[in-house]
Amino acid sequence: MQVQAESETCCELFLENMYRRGLVGKKLELIVTDGSSGLIRAVELVYPGVPRQRCWAHKARNIAGKLRRKNQEECLNGMRRIYQQQNRREAIKAYREWEARWREEEPAAVECLAKDLEEMLTFYSMPKHHWKKIRTTNLIERIFREVRRRTRPMTCFANKASCDRVIFAVFDAFNKRWESHPIRHFTQQS
Predict the structure, then answer these.
(1) What is the model's pTM?
(2) What's the 3-state SS for the chain?
(3) pLDDT tens digit string along 76-96?
(4) What percent of the chain is modeled with pLDDT above 70?
């Protein structure tokens, strides 16, 4: 039996391992996730009560998949205006305008955003200078792209340890970069 990498069990084991190694989350103020239901349930179990921001990039892709091609550009541009507002109240106003515009023509897209709207707007409760970085999972996705870029051309590894070394090197490089340029408000060292 093959276990899916993003299953609740896998995500829970991963998060519990991080917890046991010291990421207990006492100062954890926000968790940014994609729409993986397994990851969301695992986060709620291991780090209950920590606010969660859903990724706008993932949500936009989900919504795009529900739209007729002729409506994609206009609808997605309207959706982007929601998270570009200066505060949460204005974002909700922009959402209501977007929802009123698309409710009848693209009901599946409207429902897709409506069901997660609260978690889509969590970033507004954080310092404004972090909003752009925390409203998506782009920071972590960038690391995963770099791992794939480094490992795919190698087609095979001598053993698991050789693959681990390449992946470690990528993560280590990002860690060093972030050490000298941390997102201070979101580190455990306040």
Answers:
(1) 0.76
(2) CCCCCCCHHHHHHHHHHHHHCCCCCCCCCCEEECCCHHHHHHHHHHCCCCCEEECHHHHHHHHHCCCCHHHHHHHHHHHHHHHCCCCHHHHHHHHHHHHHHHCCCCHHHHHHHHCCHHHHCHHHHCCHHHHHHHCCCHHHHHHHHHHHHHHHHHCCCCCHHHHHHHHHHHHHHHHHHHHHCCCHHHCCCC
(3) 999 999 999 999 999 999 999
(4) 92
